[in-house]
UniProtKB/TrEMBL annotation:
Cross-referenced InterPro entries: DUF2232 (IPR018710)
Key words, A-Z: Membrane, Transmembrane, Transmembrane helix
Residue ranges of the TM segments: 51-69, 75-91, 152-173
Keyword Transmembrane: yes
Cross-referenced Pfam families: DUF2232 (PF09991)
Protein name as annotated: Uncharacterized protein
Amino acid sequence: KTRQLVESAMLAAVTGLAYTVGNLLKLESYLAYILPLPVVLSALRSGPVPAVKTLTVTCLLLLILMGPVRATTYLLVYGVLSLSLAVCWALRLPWVVSIPLGALARIGGYLAYIALSSWVTNENLLMLMLNNVYALLDQLSALLGTTGSPPLLAVAIVLCSLLFVNSIMYVALSHVLYAIMLRGMGLELHGAPKSLERFIAGLPTT
């Protein structure tokens, strides 16, 4: 238990430092694939419970360093996703299950983040996104020579589809990158397709 506590504290400190530096230097987009890694490492080494502790300590650390808004932003944008991936990989679920679950967790976190941002800025950001997609579909209709405006339901479906496709691609790429990185650390990510496992096994470890 002492080792788990020390590891959780160290991984939380690394995550908090990376997120803080990324925000200050505007490098958060470049660290998007790295920030969930410490929680994942904690789960693969010690199980889901230490992963929850790592995420909790990270949020508390960010609450002290950057305030409640930034800490909540990390939790919604990266924390929910990292915890879902950590649990899936600790349970050795196949990728056909963990990728959709991770994508849904990412979408849920982002929608909650949009709601939080709307409350902070006192502006309906979700409606702004819907209006942008509506304008895009309206321009597409004009190019195709069709008349009439797309219904709001169609706009919402297109927006949700775009979010889901983006999240699937992000989480799938995260699976591949983490499988390669964790192999270099002496850990194994189970559940990958056999062809991908053979490809990763053939990569050099140095």
